[in-house]
Design brief:
This protein has 272 residues and is an alpha/beta fold. The chain is built from 11 helices and 7 strands. The strands form 2 sheets. A 5-stranded parallel beta sheet has the order 1-5-4-2-3. Strands 6-7 form a two-stranded antiparallel ribbon. It is rod-shaped, with a radius of gyration of 55 Å.
Length: 272
Amino acid sequence: MSKNFGDRVAKGREGVEVVNVEQAKAALEADSNALVLDVRDTGELAGTGIIPGSACISLGTLFYKADQDMPEGVKDARLEDKSRQILCSCAKGGQASIAAGVLKEYGYENVKVIEGGILGWKEAGYDTEEEQRRIDREKGRLGRRADGTPINPGDPEDPNVRANQAKKTQTNEEEELEERARGRRHQKAHDPARDDDRTRPMEEKEDKDKKEKKGKKDKLDVTGRGGKGGPDGEVTRSDIITLAKKNKKPTKEQIEALVKKALQEALQKRKG
């Protein structure tokens, strides 16, 4: 004959101590090693929260997670000690009773059922722990975003990531400032304008020397006293042409006249 849910609840309570929420709270305060086992499905946990510190193992998975003959990673290490006081809980106590029967069959020695479950716990005014927060804590999550998605270590919202990013940004800014400073120092050391400033006096002196030299060349001495003409101060045709070019492009006739005049003056001075 098949059994219904009520039959399974009654069967699970056989030989198991049933306690109310006040007794359960007192047991937890007296025994720091005591474990509350909430066997509801995950979807049921978010709406009510859980008794603080509860181990949440759904009734459907309890059959293999409580079996210590299962391999590591399958069995639950929190159920390893079969002498540990375990208080089974659910919404009101029905699923907890079935879970207590399973544990009893597996050889657990100190199993209790919390009559009234989490709802009775909340009605008594006792604190609860939100299941999502507990899961986040167990998985090392840092909290939840506004949209409900978890914040994991390494996410942009992680304070450590933010601190590292801020430090990296500061380092980059310092490196950029240093690079700019090096660039300015390099430009200052190799500034063409500064090079021009350093070389300008030398260039000006060279220009001055050239002008003086050219001026001396242009000053033709047609008297025969140290001029740059031919022998005995005789003015050559090329000297006169050079001199004549200073008078705004003289004509050929003007140049010849100047040559003739210069020769005459030279002859007169020689005779004198």
